[in-house]
Design a protein that fits this description.
By secondary structure, the protein is mostly helical. The chain is built from 9 helices and 2 strands. The chain has a single domain, classed as CDP-alcohol phosphotransferase transmembrane (TM) domain (Four Helix Bundle (Hemerythrin (Met), subunit A)), CATH 1.20.120. 73% of the residues lie in helices and 2% in strands.
């Protein structure tokens, strides 16, 4: 009987935990508990950020793990957010609301398929940019109106259902577009900057624990504003490298 190396099995087990968190968000949304559904999606995104890094740290990467991670991303950040939004507000549009949900899901599937192909054909500077908005980020953007609704910022925003309807279509387009967005995979930083960055992460998770939806709102708006900056930055680098 062939044995499985624990270093390979551990990251895959973590990925499966993330998948279970995402699927539980669907059950909570079906029950109308949208706040907890969002929290479970956030937990799934944290697990998603950890599994690959842990695999590389303990040298437990594998082709199986890469495929499992991609499929989990599709479920957690392609299917779940769209269905949650449908239960929350898109069902008010009947058939058209369901069609918009399907558009987001299919766009997420296409985005992940393209990522699996394109990630191997990029130069040194291009690896710091994604082609289009990655699926986990798109999930955060598409859920942003719901996140704001549960935050203390809801008094400053008034989302009409039709605006949310159109935003889902727009974010679906961002996923499958060729617009470059920041990936920050091979940026080298000094030890001093790393210390400040580590302190920043401590503060971020402290605020995330204390003021979850307010912190997620600010993070989502910052990411949304970063998209045009990443596009301009990419064009300048491409011109610099003669492409």
């Amino acid at each position: 009987m062939k044995k499985i190396d624990f270093r390979v099995a551990l990251p895959n087990l973590i990925t499966i935990v993330g998948l279970c968190l995402g699927l539980n968000s669907l059950r909570l949304a079906f029950e109308g508990n949208f706040e907890k559904a969002l929290i479970f999606i956030v937990l799934a995104s944290i697990v998603d950020a950890l599994d690959g890094r842990i695999a590389r740290l303990i040298k437990g990467t594998s082709k199986f793990g890469a495929e499992l991670d991609s499929l989990t991303d599709f479920v957690n950040f392609g299917v779940c957010p769209s269905i949650i939004l449908y239960f929350w507000i898109l069902n008010n549009f009947g058939f058209y609301g369901w069609m918009v949900s399907l558009i987001f899901i299919v766009s997420g599937c296409l985005r992940l398929a393209r990522f699996n192909i394109d990630s191997e054909n990029k130069s040194n500077w291009e690896v710091n940019f994604f082609t289009g908005v990655p699926v986990p980020a798109a999930a955060g953007l598409v859920l942003l109106p719901m996140i704001i609704n549960f935050s203390n910022f809801n008094q400053f925003f008034n989302f009409d259902p039709s605006i949310i309807f159109l935003s889902v279509i727009f974010i679906s387009f961002l996923m499958i577009s060729r617009i470059p967005t920041y990936a920050i995979k091979q940026i080298k930083i000094s030890k001093t900057i790393f210390i400040f960055l580590a302190l920043g992460f401590v503060l971020f998770f402290s605020f995330l624990f204390q003021n979850t939806f307010e912190t997620l709102t600010i993070l989502g708006l910052i990411y949304l504003l970063s998209i045009p900056f990443s596009y301009v930055h990419f064009l300048r680098l491409r011109k610099k490298h003669g492409k």
